[in-house]
Amino acid sequence: MARSQGIRDTSWWGxxxxxxxxxxxLFLKLSVLMGVLLVIAISVPTVLTLRxxxxxxxxxxxDEGTMxxxxxxxxxxxxxxxxxxxxLGRLVSMLVHxxxxxxxxxxxxxxxxxxxxSRVEEEGSIVEDLREPPDSPAVATVIGRDxxxxxxxxxxxRLSGEPWGAVRIRLPLATLDMxxxxxxxxxxxxxxxxxxxxxxxxxxxxxxxxxxxGRLASAASEVARGNFDVRSGxxxxxxxxxxxxxxxxxxxxxxxxxxxxxxxxxxxxLKVRERTHALEERTxxxxxxKEGAEAATRAKSExxxxxxxxxxxxxxxxxxxxxxxxxxxxxxxxxxxxxxVKQSANGLLTIINDILxxxxxxxxxxxxxxxxxxxxxxxxxxMKLLAVLPDRPGLDVRWEVAPDVPDCLLGxxxxxxxxxxxxVGNAVKxxxxxxxxxxxxxxxxxxxxxxxxxxxxxxxxxxxxxxxRTIFEPFSQGDGSRTRKFGGTGLGLTISARLVEKMGxxxxxxxxVGKGSTFHFTARFSVVQAASAAGPExxxxxxxxxxxxxxxxxxxxxxxxxxxxxxLVNQRLATRILEKKGYSVVVAANGAEAVxxxxxxxxxxxxxxxQMPELDGLEATAKIRLRxxxxxxxxxxxxxxxxx
Length: 644
What we know:
This protein has 13 helices and 17 strands. It is α+β, with helices and mostly antiparallel strands. Among the domains are: 44-182, Beta-Lactamase, CATH 3.30.450.20; 370-546, Heat Shock Protein 90, CATH 3.30.565.10; 555-644, Response regulator (Rossmann fold, 3-Layer(aba) Sandwich), CATH 3.40.50.2300. Strands 6, 7, 8, 9, 10, 11, 12 and 13 form an eight-stranded mixed beta sheet that branches. A hairpin with a 2-residue loop joins strand 9 (434-446) and strand 10. Helix 5 (332-363) crosses helix 10 (492-502) and helix 12 runs parallel beside helix 13. The longest helix is centred in the middle third of the chain and has 88 residues, at 239-326. The chain is elongated, with a radius of gyration of 63 Å. It starts with 19 loop residues before the first helix and ends with a strand.
C-alpha cells in the first residue's frame, strides 16, 4: 500500500487552490453570521439605552420647566397682591435672561391677554388657548414655534384662591437633542471597540472551523480523483476531528479495498481473456454449425421443392392415365380395379399434398397469394364435388352466404378453398346421414376491410371433449377408428388452423358426441368492386348425391398445341387428353426444344412445364417472348407445374 499523504495548507485559513472558493465561502459565511450577531448584540442595548436616556432627559426637562413655571406663578401672585404690575414685566425678562434654557416667558389674565412677556412687543396680544386658564396645576406640551421645537409649560396663577391668569414658559428642545448626542457618543465609542474585538474573535472562530473543513474538502477531492492514500491530517478533539478521523478511516479502507479490487480485476481479466478465447472458439463452432444448419435448411427447401415436383408428377400421370383408361370400354371387373387405383392415387396425392404443405408451413415458406375472386362461385364448386358420395344417399349438403356478405373479394382463393375442402370434407367423411351445412356471415366491416365468419356444421358422430383440445395439433385425429376407415394423416385441421392464422383469423370447434360438430373460423379480406359484366351469384345452394355424373366434350379440331414436358408419362397423358379433345399435339422434351419448335412452326397455344432440364419453363418463355416482340406475334403460354 502507498504511503499516506497529508493535506498541506496553502493559505492563512488552510485553503487548497482547487477548492479554495468553497472554503472561502464558508469562512465568509461564518464571519458574516457572527458579525450580524455582534451587530444585533451591540445595537439592541444601545438603542434601548438611547431611548431610555431620551425619556429620562425629557422628564428632567419637563420637571425643570414645571418648577420654573411654579416659581414664576408664586412670584406673580405675590406681585399681584401688592398691585405691582410693572414688576411682572421685569420678572419675566429677568427670568429669560438669567436662565439660558428658557426661550420665552409670559403672563396672561383670565381673558388670555398678555400682561407681561419676555418680548415686550408681544404684550397686549391675546393667547387664544389661555382665554380659560387650565384647571390642572401645570400642563406641559411640545410645540413647534418659529421653526424650532420647544417644550411649553403652562401654570395657572391664583390670587386669594381664585384664578387670575396663567404663566407660560418655553424651553427649546435643542438642549435635549444636545444631551442625547452626547449620550450617543458616550455609548457608541465603546460599542465600536467591542464590535471590532468581537469581529476579530469571530474571524478566529470562523477560521478554526473553515480551515479543517477546507482540508477535508481538499482530501475528498483527491479521493474523487482516485487517490485513496490521502489523509486529512486533522488531529483536533472536537466533532470536526471525529469527522476527519472517520474520513481517514474510510480512505484507508478504500485504499485497501482498491488494492484488493485491483488484484481481483487482474485475476478477472486473465479469466476473461481465457473465456473470451474459449468463447471465440465456441463462436467459430456455432458459426460453422449455423452455416451447416442453413445449408441443411437450404437443402431441405430444395428437397421439398424437388420432391413436390417429383412426387406429384408421377401421381398426376397415374391419375390421368387412370381417367383415360376409365373412359375406354372396360369390363366390370377392370373398371372396379381402375376405380380403386384412382381412389388410392387421389388419397395418396392428398396425403402427399398435406405433408408438403405442412413442411412448408413449418419452414415458414408458405405465403398467401392475394388475388381477386368471387366468394359464392369459389364455395359452390368444391361443395358440389364434396357432395357426390355414392354410399351416402341420406346426406344433404348445403351452403349459405348471408346477403350482406360482399361477393367480390381480395384474398387467397386457393388457400380459402383448401380450408373449406378440409372442413367440409371431414364433415362429409364423418356424417353418414343428415346434413352438412356451410354458412358464411359478415362479422365486421371497416371501410374496405371485412371479417367473415365461416361455420361448418354436421350431424355426424361428434368429437369427445378431450380430443377437442388437441384436434388442431399435428398428426392428431378425432376418431382413430373412423379415420382409419377413410384414411388421412391428421394434418388437414393443422394446416387449416395455420392458414386461418395467416388470414388474420382464428379457428375453433364446438361438438357433442353423437350429435355432431360445428367448426368455426374467421378470416379477413378486402372488398373490391365487382366487374360490371359479371352475372349474379347464388347466396345459397343444395346438392344431393347422385349415382352418376357425366361430362360432354366439344370438338375443337384444327388447333395446334405445343406441349413442353420432360416426363414421358406426362407427355403421353397430355397428348392423349388433348387428342381426345380434337387438338393437334407436338411434344418438346425440354425448354430448348420448345424454343426451337416455336420458332420453326406455328402453334395456337403452348403448354409449358416449369421444371425441365437444359432450359426451364421461365427461361424458355422469356426467349419465346423476346423473339415474338421482334416478329410482332403472340402465342398464349400456359404454365404446367406439379408444385403446390
